[in-house]
Write a structure and sequence with these properties.
Number of domains: 1
Number of helices: 3
Shape: elongated
Strand content: under 5%
Helix content: 55-70%
Distance between the termini: 59 Å
Largest sheet: none
Number of strands: 0
Length: 67
């Protein structure tokens, strides 16, 4: 896997380390990014993907039958 070097403010790096409970800033940032991505995938799984919006909006705009 390719590595990327990112510069962070030291206060931000320390706060991230404390929140993540790690000893190195790199581990802390990696954990937080992985968690962020996992949350995004879980949200997509619950709410559907962008392609589903078109399919569902057609059904919602159709008049209801039986009234």
């Amino acid at each position: 896997m390719a590595k990327v070097t990112i510069s962070l403010d030291s206060d931000l790096a320390i706060e991230v380390m404390l929140l993540a409970g790690t000893r190195t800033p790199q581990d802390a940032v990696e954990m937080i990014v992985r968690d962020f991505l996992a949350r995004g995938h879980r949200t997509e799984a619950r709410t559907g993907e962008a392609a589903d919006v078109d399919r569902l909006s057609d059904r919602r705009s159709a008049p209801e039958e039986g009234r």
